[in-house]
Amino acid sequence: MKKNNKDEAPVNLLDLIPERRIEWEKTDAGLVNLLKVKFRHPWLVKHLIPRLKNPYFRIKLDDIGSSTWKACDGKRDVRQVGKILKEEFGEKVEPLYDRLAFFLQQLEKNRFITFRKK
Length: 118
Fold this sequence. Notes:
The two termini are 16 Å apart. Strand 2 and strand 3 form a beta hairpin. The protein is of the alpha+beta class and 118 residues long. The protein has one domain (13-113). It has 4 helices and 5 strands; from the N terminus they run E-E-E-H-E-H-H-H-E.
């Protein structure tokens, strides 16, 4: 998450709404593969991407990561995503909000999601 200026009030991660920024696909097993474009430079996109067999890197998520990704639909805040994970996985996801915060921050760092305020 971006650091706030000293003038702004601190932002609670649980109140933010994660929104997906990249394409994804669902596997036969119900898991999620994130599709990250291999090249972003305009020249490479124009000349090289059309010649590639597959223009994406596939990032495979496990069952917890897949459920988290599916719950990040741009309508639910992080608190609601945590409740969904708790209902689905129970004690398997503990410590829930520590793990969830780390995962979402990694997704944001890699520009797979963005956060917006309610």
